[in-house]
Amino acid sequence: MHNQGRSYTQLAAEYGPSADSIRNWVKLYTVHEVDGEKWTQADVNALQKENAKLREELEILKRAAVLLSKYN
Questions:
Q1: Which residues of 46-61 are buried (b: 16+ CB within 10 A; e: fewer)?
Q2: Which backbone phi and psi does 34 adopt, to 5 degrees?
Q3: What is the pLDDT of residues 2-60, one digit of tens each?
Q4: Between vectors from CA 34 to CA 32 and to CA 40, what angle results, nearest 5°?
Q5: Strands, DSSP E only, in 1-68?
Q6: Which of 30, 35, 48, 56 is the least crowded, having the fewest Cβ atoms under 10 Å away?
């Protein structure tokens, strides 16, 4: 509704959440096209979180490989 011209203040008055909350939701879920793919900020945030987890797992596996190589 915001993208169709309604202000954050109008939406907040009608639906209850604060204008700042609505602004954050719009920011998170507005679709952007990058190299032919559509992404939201929420998608990017999820990918960053998954990437951090995978980096941590990779470091653990590297340490395990070093330990295993010492015993073989």
A1: eeeeeeeeeeeeeeee
A2: -130, 120
A3: 878 899 999 999 999 999 999 999 999 899 998 999 999 999 999 999 999 999 999 99
A4: 35
A5: 32-34, 37-39
A6: 35
> How wide is the angle at C-alpha 34 spanned by C-alphas 31 and 37, nearest 5°?
75
* 3-class secondary structure, 41: helix
Residue type at position 15: Y
| Tokens coding 56 | 């941590």
- Residues paired with 39 in a beta bridge: 32
**Pair of tokens at residue 4:** 């169709």
Compute how many other C-beta atoms are within 10 angstroms of the C-beta atom of residue 10. 14
Where are the strands (E) in the chain, listed by range? 32-34, 37-39
